[in-house]
Amino acid sequence: MSESGLLSARPLTGAVVGVTADRRRHDQQTLLERQGATVLAAPVFRSAPISPDGITVADLVSRGRHPHQRWFRQWSHADEEAVTAAMEATGVTELADRSVDELSGGQRQIVWIAMALAQGTDILLLDEPTTFLDLTHQIDVLDLLADLHHDHARTIVCVLHDLNLACRYADHIVAMRDGTIVAEGPPTEVVDAALVNKVFDLDAKIVEDPVSGTPLIVPIGRHLREDRANAGVGGDADFEARVDVNSDE
User: Is the pTM of this model over 0.90?
Assistant: First the structure.
C-alpha cells in the first residue's frame, strides 16, 4: 500500500485501511464526526519511525505524555501510571532501560505503539506499521493491536500492504485507489476477485483462509497464466476449481 489518503495528504494508489473499532464507543458516523477534545487520536506512525539517538525505551514511551504537560502541570503520578500501564500492555517493561537503537525492528515498532498508548487516546492511527518487518514480527505487531482493541477498548485504524493480514485482523476494511474509496465493509462481504483487480490491478482467486475463515487472496500472476495457456491447460474456471481443491488439503 502507498501512504493512505486517510492518514496523510498524499494520494493513495492501491490500499486497504483496516479498522478495528470499539463499537460500544464509536459507531461509524460518530467516528467520522468527533473531533478535537472529544476524541483524541494518537500520532500517525509511518513504516519506519526514527527515534532520537540514544533514547531509552522508557524515555520514548514517556514522550506520549507530552500533550498532557502544561507549564503549570509537570510530570505527575498519573503520567507515571499511564507510562507503566502502556509498557505492561505492550510487553516492553523488561526493555525499559534499553536503548531503542539496540532493538529489533519489531520491538521498536511495539515501543512506538506503547508511546501512543501512553497518550491515553481513544483511537490509534497507524500507517503501514508492519512494513520492513519479517513475518513473525508482523504477526506480533498485529496480535498486539488486536489485544489493545479487545482488552483496552481502543479503536485501531491501520493501513496495510498485506491484504490477507488486513482481512484476518480487521473488523471493517476500506479499499482505496487514487485517494478514492472503492469499497468498504466487513472483509467477508467486500473482498472478492473483482475488488482486488480494481484496486491493485492484480488477477487473483479468493479462497477461505483455513485458519481464520476470512478471505485469502491467491495471486495468479502473468507467468503462471502464460505458462498454463502455452501448455493448453484449462482456463480460469479450471484454475479456480484446482485452487478450491488444494485449499481443502
Answer: no
Q: Are 154 and 123 in contact (CB under 8 A)?
A: yes
Name 108's Cβ contacts closer than 8 Å, sequence gap at least 6. Answer: 49, 51, 100
- What tens digit of pLDDT does each residue of 82-126 get? 899 989 988 999 999 999 999 988 888 889 888 988 888 788 888
Query: How far, in Å, CA of 30 to CA of 41, rounded?
Result: 14
- Closest by CA to 172, choosing from 152, 197, 191, 193, is 191
Torsion of CA 50, 53, 54, 60, to 10 degrees: -40
Q: Exposed, middle or buried by CB within 10 Å (0-12, 13-18, 19+), for 170?
A: buried
Cβ neighbours of 1 (radius 10 Å): 22
End-to-end CA distance of the chain: give it in Å, rounded: 31
Q: Which of 70, 76, 163, 61 is nearest to 113 (CA)?
A: 61
Residues 6+ apart with CB under 8 A from 79: 62, 65, 68
Nine-digit cell at 108? Answer: 521498536
- Position 120 scores a pLDDT of 84
Q: Which residues pair with 184 in a beta bridge?
A: 174
21: buried, middle or exposed (CB in 10 Å: 19+, 13-18, 0-12)? buried
Amino acid at 84: T
> Amino acid identity, residue 240?
E
Residue that is written with C-alpha cell 491515553 in the block: 120
The number of residues making up the chain comes to: 249
Amino acid at 29: Q
> Who's near 218: CB < 8 A, 6+ residues apart?
204, 205, 206, 207, 243
Grid cell at residue 128: 503501514
Amino acid in the structure at residue 10 = R
